[in-house]
């Protein structure tokens, strides 16, 4: 019987496809084949047949990861809201903070002012209350530092920009004071003087 007449083995009837493997991949395939008790060829065929299932699993895993990322973002947003709620309605010691009921028209005016000053609603309300209810006592040390900073500002080569800075800050804070310095070094605080009045006085002196 010639080789052409004998019945061929299944391995001889199978299609052949030559693949060039990158360095190291053959060793990994052999290791996996030995672990699964099959030949390298059978290992490769099994992996190829499992590819559609693996692809579906990978797609499902990717979709699940995206969902988890969305859930994580949503939970972080909820935590931020809870933290804001805690700061608004509870003190640092955990006790409930006082709640102020503000009429809607007043709240609208505060909101408009806050938007113009680029501040939050809370910050604007606090700033307004600070002006309306100034502290009954002062920090002597802080006042001393401020007064010492005024020494020498009236000299010919003194820092007139510093005086302008102070007066602008006082006017912006709606504080009814203007600081003036004479050429003799005398510094005075003028009550209820606005920046416009100060400018007029300086213009008259010229």
Automatic annotation (TrEMBL):
Arc-like DNA binding domain location is 14-50
What parts of the sequence cross the membrane? none
- InterPro entries hit by this protein: Arc_DNA-bd_dom, Arc_rbn_hlx_hlx, Ribbon_hlx_hlx
Q: GO biological process annotations for this chain's record?
A: regulation of DNA-templated transcription
Q: What would be an example GO MF term here?
A: DNA binding
Question: Coiled-coil ranges per the record?
Answer: none
A single Pfam family, by name? Answer: Arc
Per its record, how is this protein called by name?
Arc-like DNA binding domain-containing protein
């Amino acid at each position: 019987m010639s080789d052409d007449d004998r019945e061929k083995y299944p391995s001889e009837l199978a299609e052949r496809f030559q693949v060039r493997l990158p360095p190291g991949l053959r060793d990994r395939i052999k290791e996996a084949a030995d672990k699964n008790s099959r030949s390298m060829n059978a290992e490769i065929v099994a992996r190829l047949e499992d590819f559609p299932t693996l692809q579906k699993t990978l797609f499902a895993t990717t979709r699940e990861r995206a969902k988890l990322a969305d859930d994580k973002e949503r939970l972080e947003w909820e935590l931020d809201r809870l933290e804001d709620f805690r700061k608004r309605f509870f003190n640092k010691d955990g006790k409930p903070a006082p709640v102020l009921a503000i009429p809607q028209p007043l709240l609208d005016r505060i909101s408009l002012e806050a938007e113009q000053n680029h501040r939050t609603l809370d910050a604007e309300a606090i700033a307004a209350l600070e002006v309306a209810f100034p502290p009954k006592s002062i920090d002597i040390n802080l006042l001393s530092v401020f007064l010492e900073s005024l020494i020498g500002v009236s000299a010919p080569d003194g820092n007139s920009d510093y005086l302008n800075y102070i007066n602008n800050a006082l006017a912006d804070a709606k504080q009814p004071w203007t600081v003036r310095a004479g050429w003799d070094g005398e510094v005075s605080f003028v009550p209820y003087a606005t920046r416009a009045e100060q400018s007029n006085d300086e213009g008259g002196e010229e």
